[in-house]
Amino acid sequence: MKSFAVIGCGRFGSSVAKTLYKLGYDVLAIDYSEEVTQSIADYVTKAVTVSSFEENVLREIGVANCDVVIVGIGSDIEASVITTLAVKELGVGYILCKAGSEIQEKILYKIGANKVITPEKEMGMKIANNLVSENILDKIDLDPNYTIVEIGIPEIWVGKTLAQLEIRKRYLLNVVATKKDDELNIVPNPNEILEKNTAILLIGKNEDLQKFENSLKN
């Protein structure tokens, strides 16, 4: 099970942290503001208030032990760059950063970020994807090879069970949770009959998810 650290818990960072925690992952949330960390404490594994995002501070609170670090600082380029460099020095295997501009995006890639997202651009891509594949509700990139995708179940799945669908056998994907009326169930019953307003969260290799998405369009 991968562990995550989210540095900078504004709207973007807190959303990522809470979602990952709901999916059953260990999440360390870090922010300058005690008010922010207190507000998110009940929705993550651990929330820590720090005075700076320097390497020694991040090492002391355990960031070096995390598999993935999300740097959610987009508005302050200097802080974003310094924090990303510090995380890189800690030897973290995968670093995802938020950027507020294309220039910031280029800089973050140059200094070692594995993935950089600009929310407005990502939202545009998400809207475009949803227009051509109405079942895809959301995606979370875990690393270069694996992604979590949330789908609204196709009409032909209504009335069937997860066991009957054999998603693992047919698509090489794992069902990590089901979602109904915004309530997440991370231990789905394979024999529960799926209803029209149910969503499923799947995890798998990107190429397998792409094949699965293509099958929904056919």
| Mean pLDDT metric | 86
State the share of residues found in helices, binned by percent.
25-40%
SSE arrangement, N to C: EHEHEHEHEHEHEEHHEEEH
First CA to last CA: what distance?
Answer: 34 Å
Count the beta strands: 11
Q: What strand order characterises the main sheet?
A: 3-2-1-4-5-6
Continuous helix count: 9
Biggest sheet overview: 6 strands, parallel
Give a structural overview.
This protein is 38% helix and 27% strand. The longest helix is centred in the middle third of the chain and has 14 residues, at 119-132. The chain is elongated, with a radius of gyration of 18 Å. The strands form 2 sheets. A 6-stranded parallel sheet has the order 3-2-1-4-5-6, with helices on both faces. The protein has a 5-stranded antiparallel sheet with strand order 7-8-11-9-10. The mean pLDDT is 86. The protein has 218 residues and is an alpha/beta fold. It has 9 helices and 11 strands. It has helices at residues 11-22, 34-40, 55-60, 77-89, 102-110, 119-132, 162-165, 167-171, 206-217, and strands at residues 3-7, 26-31, 46-49, 68-71, 94-98, 115-117, 136-141, 146-152, 174-180, 183-185, 198-205. β9 and β10 (183-185) form a beta hairpin.
Which helices and strands appear, and what pairs or packs with what?
Layout: E1 3-7, H1 11-22, E2 26-31, H2 34-40, E3 46-49, H3 55-60, E4 68-71, H4 77-89, E5 94-98, H5 102-110, E6 115-117, H6 119-132, E7 136-141, E8 146-152, H7 162-165, H8 167-171, E9 174-180, E10 183-185, E11 198-205, H9 206-217
Parallel strand pairs: 1-2, 1-4, 2-3, 4-5, 5-6
Antiparallel strand pairs: 7-8, 8-11, 9-10, 9-11
